[in-house]
């Protein structure tokens, strides 16, 4: 009998999917790690589980305790699921600009949700810094601190990266994905470089993020903005320190939306906004390298969390982003 022991045991071991329309168009194998099939619906289930387990192993999280986090949504959703499964409480601080679907889902899962104005990281009331202060003021509480908690990238080094290596039989030329905390990109990049130093590790970046310029010039410079949620950064997090950065590709919102709708209409995949950045960057790498290469990226989450924006034609029209 093959029976998983509860929610926690179902995290990970997601399939690798060939993205047929993009692969056929470029002559490359463009593969997406189907992280939307995690039990909490996103790639962040892995980091949420590892951060809670790490706190438990260090004796920082006691029975009945509270997990506090500042999140754009998916990490909070993963934490709320795992807190329910393990008997902890969950308090989430989230920018009010995030999709209403994610905010309502957090409340449905039983998390205490505090929405706050979206302000830059340098502001003391930035949602990340605020969540840290709240955790400090509470008894029997931990701050997950996903941006600088190395349990995040360890989750992907020990699981996601190894799964990708095994699923491709080591036949992979490029690893490319966007970063928010940096955990997914970093953990997989470290594992793959260890296995084969010739694998290119490439950051996919939306407009409004400073990571593209950092990889290209060594300095963080920010231009434009993006409607994507939970990716991009204006600083180098602890998870991204000392990580292979071979190249970077910047994808704008128009290309992101085009990719999202191609995935939906030609590949049958109903995906969230960051997937458009990821697959857009994988497609750009395929065009740059030419046929015959294998490129792996992440299908982070599904489209249901973004229907009021990304799949709302009136919203897209107002942003000038309607797909052709």
Automatic annotation (TrEMBL):
This protein's record includes keyword Magnesium: no
Keywords on record: Amino-acid biosynthesis, Pyridoxal phosphate, Transferase, Transit peptide
Domain of life: Bacteria
InterPro entries: Cys_Synth/Cystath_Beta-Synth, P-phosphate_BS, TrpB-like_PALP, TrpB-like_PALP_sf
EC numbers for this chain: 2.5.1.47
One annotated GO biological process: cysteine biosynthetic process from serine
Essential cofactor(s): pyridoxal 5'-phosphate
Key word Transferase present: yes
Domain Tryptophan synthase beta chain-like PALP: 11-301
Pathway, per record: Amino-acid biosynthesis
Record field: catalytic activity: O-acetyl-L-serine + hydrogen sulfide = L-cysteine + acetate
Enzyme class: transferase
GO molecular function, one term: cysteine synthase activity
Family, similarity comment: Belongs to the cysteine synthase/cystathionine beta-synthase family.
NCBIfam families, sorted: PRK10717.1
Identification of the protein by name: cysteine synthase
Organism ancestry: Bacteria, Bacillati, Cyanobacteriota, Cyanophyceae, Spirulinales
């Amino acid at each position: 009998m093959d029976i998983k022991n509860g929610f926690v045991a179902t995290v990970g071991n997601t399939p690798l999917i060939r993205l047929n329309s993009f692969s056929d168009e470029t002559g490359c194998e463009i593969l997406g790690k189907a992280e939307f099939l995690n039990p909490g619906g996103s790639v962040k289930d892995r980091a949420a589980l590892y951060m809670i387990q790490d706190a438990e192993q260090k004796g920082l999280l006691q029975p009945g305790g509270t997990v506090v986090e500042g999140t754009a949504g998916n990490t909070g959703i993963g934490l709320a699921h795992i807190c329910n499964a393990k008997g902890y409480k969950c308090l989430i601080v989230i920018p009010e600009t995030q999709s209403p679907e994610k905010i309502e889902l957090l409340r449905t899962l039983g998390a205490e949700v505090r929405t706050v104005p979206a302000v830059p990281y340098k502001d003391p009331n930035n949602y990340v810094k605020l969540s840290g202060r709240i955790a400090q003021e509470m008894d029997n509480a931990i701050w997950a601190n996903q941006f600088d908690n190395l349990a995040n990238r360890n989750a992907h080094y020990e699981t996601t990266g190894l799964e990708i290596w095994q699923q491709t039989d080591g036949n992979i030329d490029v690893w490319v994905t966007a970063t928010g905390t940096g955990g997914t990109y970093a953990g997989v990049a470290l594992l793959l470089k260890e296995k084969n130093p010739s694998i290119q590790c490439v950051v996919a970046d939306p407009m409004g993020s400073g990571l593209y310029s950092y990889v290209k010039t060594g300095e963080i410079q920010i231009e434009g903005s993006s409607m994507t949620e939970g990716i991009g950064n204006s600083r180098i997090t602890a998870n991204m320190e000392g990580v292979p950065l071979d190249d970077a590709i910047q994808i704008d919102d128009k290309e992101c939306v085009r990719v999202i709708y191609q995935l939906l209409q030609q590949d049958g995949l109903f995906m969230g906004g960051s997937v458009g950045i990821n697959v857009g960057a994988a497609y750009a790498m395929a065009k740059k390298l030419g046929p015959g290469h294998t490129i792996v990226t992440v299908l982070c989450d599904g489209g249901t969390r973004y229907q009021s924006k990304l799949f709302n034609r009136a919203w897209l029209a107002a942003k000038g982003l309607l797909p052709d």
